Fold this sequence. Notes:
Helix content: 40-55%
Keywords: DNA-binding, Phosphoprotein, Transcription, Transcription regulation
Structural class: alpha/beta
Organism: Desulfitobacterium metallireducens DSM 15288
InterPro entries: CheY-like_superfamily (IPR011006), OmpR/PhoB-type_DNA-bd (IPR001867), Sig_transdc_resp-reg_C-effctor (IPR016032), Sig_transdc_resp-reg_receiver (IPR001789), WalR-like (IPR039420), WH-like_DNA-bd_sf (IPR036388)
CATH class of the largest domain: Alpha Beta
Protein name: Stage 0 sporulation protein A homolog
Pfam families: Response_reg (PF00072), Trans_reg_C (PF00486)
Oligomer: single chain
Amino acid sequence: MYNIMLVEDDLTIARTLQDHLEKWDYQVTLVTDFRNITEQVLRLDPQLVLLDIMLPYFNGFYWCGEIRKISKVPVIFISSASDNMNIVMAMNMGGDDFIAKPFDLNVLTAKVGALLRRTYSFQGQVSIIEHKGVVLNLSDTTLTVENQKIDLTKNDYKILQLLMENIGRVVSREEIMQRLWENDQFIDDNTLTVNMARLRKKLTEWGLMNFIATKKGLGYIIE
Length: 223
């Protein structure tokens, strides 16, 4: 379980974020003493820090600079101060990403997950994911069905990896799009529909009809 340290002085926002992220199996620690953030980073040893800009005593830019003196932990700024100068300052001070308030909680969760994967994906990663006799090989990005290997496109693999990492849980379209295109560029929602249709056609040809189920208005699931 990843431990996220949340530095947000608005308790209502902090509790909302904590409740939402904990539903996704993250451990979230709220900072309540804003006088020495670096001391708490050293004590908690989080895998990611969510950091507001406007804070008591010193702002988030200052604390990000101080954190960078002692740790390479990923830092995502969350702030209503979303003009270009603040975004540039956040990146220059060592931030890894910036999310403007008010934000969509699902988008924030997708960004958190993407940054954690990029940072920690090679630490103790398993080499295969198996479900009902279907094996996804993470080493060569192939799918094996009844001892037959299926070659996957880059997007086929990313979709299946995300869904098979979350067996039994509905994965939103937004989360899948974030996995496929990990940037802030606008992607037409229809692009995901096309990719999903191609993948399902390929799976059906190998006898895996309805392997990926649609939950209308919610997303996709492998049950």
